[in-house]
Amino acid sequence: MFSLAFMRHAFVASTFIAIVSGVIGVFVVARNMSFLTHTLSEIGFAGASFAVFMGWSPLNGMLIFTILSSVMVGQLSNQGSRREAVISATSALFIGLGILFLSLSSQMASSATSILFGSVVGISAHEVRQLIALSLIVLLVTLLIYRRLKFSSFDSVGASAVGINEMTVSIAFLLLLAMSVSVAAQIVGSLLIFILLTLPAASAKYFTHSVSSMILLSILFALLGTWLGLYLGYLSNWPVSFFTAVLEAGIYVLSLVYHRRQNE
Questions:
Q1: Taking the domain 5-190, which CATH number applies?
Q2: How much is the pTM?
Q3: What positions belong to coiled-coil segments (predicted)?
Q4: Which of 62, 77, 119, 194 has the highest CB neighbour count under 10 A?
C-alpha cells in the first residue's frame, strides 16, 4: 500500500488533518460552536467551487472564503435570538453560490464530488506541503494563545474577571476554525467537515476532564478514524469519507456507553 505515492501522500495529509481537527475540535465543542462549523462548511463549498471556476486549487478558494467570512458570521450569530436565522441565510446564500460556480465550470460532476466528499487520495505532493504548512500555522497560533483560549472556552466568566479580552480571543479562534475547516475538508469534504471537528472531541470529553488529556484523546480518535478510513478505502475502493464517518460515529456511541456505565 505504501509503495503507492498517492497513498503515502494521503496518510501524511490525513495525519496533519487529524491532529488539527483533534486540537481545534476540543474548543469547538467547549464553546458550543458546532453550528458555525456547519456554516463554514457551506462557505468553504462556495469557495472551493469558485476556485475550480477560476482554475485555482480548491484549498485556496476555501481559505479565502472561510477566513474572510468567519469573523463576520461568528459575530452575527453570537446572539442566540438570531443564530438560526443567520445560519439559515448564510448557508442558503453560499450553497447557492457554490452551485452557480460549479455550473459555470466545465468540471462540474467530478469537482462537485471532490469538494463535497473529499479526495484525499488525489492530493498531490504540492498540496500535501501546502496542507502541512497550513496545519503548522494553526497549531503554532493555538499554542501561542492556548492558555487564554482554554480559559475563555471552559470558564468564560473567570476569563472576563481576570481581564482576558474575550473579543480578541474569539476572533483569533474564528480564524483558526476557518483554516481548520479548509484543512479538514481535504479528507471528508465540505459536506462532512463536522465529523472530524466535533465527533472526536465530543467522544473524548466522556473519558477525561483534563483539557490536555481531552486534546490528546481527540487527536487519537481523529487519527484512528482517518487512518483506518484510508486503509479500508484502499482495500474496498469505497469512499474514505464513508469509513471515517462510520468509525467516528462508532467511537462516539462507545463513549456514550462508557459514560453511562460509569454513572450507574
A1: 1.10.3470.10
A2: 0.90
A3: none
A4: 62
